[in-house]
Amino acid sequence: MLVIQENSAFRAENGNSDLKKSVEFSFPTSVLASLPIEAERDGTLLVNANPLLLRDATDLLSQLRRPTQAINGVMVRQEARDSNWKLDDNRSVIDLDFSDSFPLNTEIEALLTFTNDGEVDYNQPDAHVLSLREHHSFVALPEPGYEPRGFDPRVGFEDLSFQDFSQPFNRPLRRGYIQRWRLQKKDPSGAISEPVKPIIFYLDRAVPEPMRSALKRGALWWNTAFEQAGFRNALRVEDLPEGASPLDVRYPSIQWTNRSGRGWSVGMTQADPRTGEIVHAVVQLDSHRMRTVSNYWNASLPVGRVRRNLRSTLLPRSTISIRSSWKNKSC
């Protein structure tokens, strides 16, 4: 059985079925893997999925053989000194401890091993062997009913771009859909309405206070913007249920990552490649983010204010109170 990746970069969105099929056959697809059929029963196939899962899906080999480096502000591919890296199937396995299945998605994690005859230091214990993980997500596509919205570069959205061969000759081929959540009004006639289904983000149970309360309060500020778009209480923030996994696409999450050094907050989404509808998202916050922002703030203050801030931070509260009282009496 062949696993084929369709080419969604070339379409005929408003064309008839013949035009759509013509465009489909005009541009190449990619056969990702050939899966041996082990058994067949009542129209159901049992296949060996290892060729799909134990492959270099993120194309790490290209980076190992020709790493990208920044030269004078330009990203350039360089030839590596030892570029004979290859994937070792015998030392690559599916890690079941980090794989799981949920009602709407299946998550598979593979431990892949790459070998090289030379000696290259990527912080691995053996200079000839590099083992790391690549993750696969199989997510069910959403139900029909979502209305795609065209992308406009003047508005801050991520987009899915493609060439549309059903466009008139005097319109550009390139189009794009914005990536957004499916929000529908309960009362379509109302200027402002509750949504049929709100956007719910689930907060990692490991987030400590006071960041926990601040995250909830900050995220809910988005409801002010949603009200301008006609939605009341479009966004909710709840605690991740006990035992729930952030890998489950039913739980868009705000995750907490502990670090020993400076890090950044990042956001990731999984969207329907046909329409741009977001089906899952993860916001990842770093334990050093608040400390980093505080350091930036202090670095931007005048020297005198920085010293006063440090003094307030370092001195015991009782000492500060005594000195403040003594100063007031002296005045």
Structure, explained:
The chain is an alpha+beta fold. Among the domains are: 49-140, no CATH class; 179-290, no CATH class; 305-330. 23% of the residues lie in helices and 29% in strands. The chain contains 8 helices and 19 strands. Strands 8, 9, 10, 11 and 12 form a 5-stranded antiparallel beta sheet that branches. The protein has a 5-stranded mixed beta sheet with strand order 16-15-17-19-18. A 3-stranded mixed beta sheet has the order 2-13-14. Strand 4 and strand 5 (44-47) form a beta hairpin. The longest helix has 14 residues, at 317-330. The model is unreliable at 314-331 (pLDDT under 50).
Please render the helix and strand layout as text.
Elements: E1 2-5, E2 10-11, H1 17-26, E3 30-34, E4 37-41, E5 44-47, H2 50-53, H3 60-65, E6 68-71, E7 74-77, E8 86-87, E9 93-94, E10 100-101, E11 105-115, E12 129-139, E13 159-164, E14 174-178, E15 199-203, H4 211-220, H5 222-228, E16 235-239, E17 253-257, E18 266-271, E19 278-286, H6 289-300, H7 303-314, H8 317-330
Parallel strand pairs: 2-13, 15-16, 15-17, 17-19
Antiparallel strand pairs: 1-3, 4-5, 6-7, 8-11, 9-11, 10-11, 11-12, 13-14, 18-19
Secondary structure: number of strands: 19
Class inferred from helices and paired strands: alpha+beta
Query: What's the N-to-C terminus distance?
Result: 88 Å
Q: Describe the biggest sheet?
A: 5 strands, antiparallel
List low-confidence stretches. Answer: 314-331
The helix content is 10-25%
